[in-house]
């Protein structure tokens, strides 16, 4: 496998609230390799967006700990914090809501050229004044040219008109394309797409995803797709990471997870995907638990039909299985490749019922 | 920019229409005061004949709509009618009194805005830290203390105890040769720089007393707008693309924050004009505020109508300017036009 571009180890994040401390992220590990497309899947409020926003230090209110490496260089640890230098040129986020993510009082052209001319954090207000006073035509022209290029890349047919428009003059689909274009301006190595197109109608969403996938394939950038829709994950990703309530519950290659979902939560997610043959999906009961005063436990236990005492007392460590899958659930045993299987202390409930049924059917 | 020009031009007929409405309203309302201005003006001892003559002169014997038509005709002749108190044409009186007040407002307002905005920005960017607490203290005292109290306190502490400023009036010694009626401008025209500094020196205390509450409001508003906008999605977009923090604050946030502050500023100019009365009384400045007060006491119909019209025009002009600036700052507003 190619080199990892971003590694996150044991990322924790908490917030102070009036009810107490909300421990939202509970030790997230993520690794994205060069050229890889990973889907981060989970329902609303499970911490997907927060995880990616923390990579770029965009949530000042969060108290975080853990370690992050970008291209083998430590960018975040107890003693180092250089996450903000990654913004733009190294990692770029396509924001979730196209209607509210563009500044309403500046033209698209101004917002885009600002990123090109002043992004990266080394320019001072003096530079800005100089630029405004000298009306640096050549530099501005070049930046505008580049903006036009990326707008072409996201298949906007009249880039010049769009550049001189304000966000309120453009449709949602257009704004979503512009947001993608903005994220591409500085040629990032890693692109994070937060629910791309979800806020739009289904046909527009599909078109947006196609555009995005084409760009990612052409450029060979690594990408994290954040989505609540396993169907979308199936279309665009190589690998799926499932999150629930601030914990990673399952990782799997995309082509495997749809045949053999391991974690009970992944199974409910799959069952809730509507399909033409079976009608509207099952949906799942309950919602994400409160993040205040959570114990060390499997956070899905309350909603899980297979949960037992062990699930509430002990945090299920991640267990590696065959076919490149791994799952954090007491229903599974670590796959040790045939060697003695009982050298782990972790509680083990027993094989999940659907597996034994499958075996019997075989 | 064509759409912006259209946006501005559309405002002009609106202003004119509102002025016509306003003049009818004031004109009628004043005449409903249950008292007799002619009798008040000539005194109880005057004969019935003189009284009737005076009523005719003031057109009080005519029906209301004819009075109004005459009033409008007078306006087109550059007159607002005779003041029963001073005996001058009200227009002449207003032109004489207004500059003193406008000088006060101009200085008070400019300082309020120029100090209020940076205060608000710094407070908003440092929410719940020391600069924020400090600005909250200053701003709340500006809202809590009434103007006349501030004015008197300034006189006691800064003038009487410390002797830093002149106590009252607009200038020491003779006024500069009359050109505009603004002592600051006239003294500059006369080339007398000493008189200019003296006039400014006289302005500082009353202008501060007048503008302090506006300063407080601007500070609080800019602060809360900055905090509100710092949570907006588009601010995170800018940050995630590597736009530097100073640019986020002073370009991307400020332009958004300022457009709603503008609305309030428009009202404040009119508010300062009507609030100038106390300050003028305490600092003995012969401005429009004192003129208004005296006119009301003496039931001077024409003067009251004239002054209220001036007040209305000021409100209208300032809110029209605000509208235009608003449209300039926020494209969504001018696109609706």
Automatic annotation (TrEMBL), chain A:
Protein localization: Cell membrane
MF annotations from Gene Ontology: ABC-type nickel transporter activity; ATP binding; ATP hydrolysis activity
Keywords: ATP-binding, Cell membrane, Ion transport, Membrane, Nucleotide-binding, Translocase, Transport
Region (Disordered): 333-362
One Pfam family recorded for the sequence: ABC_tran
Membrane topology term: Peripheral membrane protein
Assigned EC number: 7.2.2.11
UniProt xrefs under PROSITE patterns: ABC_TRANSPORTER_1, ABC_TRANSPORTER_2
Domain ABC transporter, first and last residues per copy: 6-270
InterPro entries the UniProt entry points to: AAA+_ATPase (IPR003593), ABC_Ni/Peptide_Import (IPR050388), ABC_transporter-like_ATP-bd (IPR003439), ABC_transporter-like_CS (IPR017871), Oligopep_ABC_C (IPR013563), P-loop_NTPase (IPR027417)
GO biological-process terms attached to the record: peptide transport
A GO term from the CC aspect: plasma membrane
Catalysed reaction equations from the record: Ni(2+)(out) + ATP + H2O = Ni(2+)(in) + ADP + phosphate + H(+)
Top-level division of the source organism's lineage: Archaea
Oligomer status and interactors: The complex is composed of two ATP-binding proteins (NikD and NikE), two transmembrane proteins (NikB and NikC) and a solute-binding protein (NikA).
Name of the protein this chain belongs to: Nickel import system ATP-binding protein NikD
Classification of source organism: Archaea, Methanobacteriati, Methanobacteriota, Stenosarchaea group, Halobacteria
TrEMBL record, chain B:
Matching InterPro entries: BPD_transp_1_N, MetI-like, MetI-like_sf
GO cellular component: plasma membrane
Broad class of the protein's primary localization: membrane
One GO BP: transmembrane transport
Subcellular localization(s) per the UniProt record: Cell membrane
Membrane-related topology note: Multi-pass membrane protein
Keyword annotations from UniProtKB, A to Z: Cell membrane, Membrane, Transmembrane, Transmembrane helix, Transport
PROSITE patterns: ABC_TM1
Protein name: ABC transporter permease
Source organism (scientific name): Natronomonas aquatica
Location of the ABC transmembrane type-1 domain: 98-326
The family this protein is said to belong to: Belongs to the binding-protein-dependent transport system permease family.
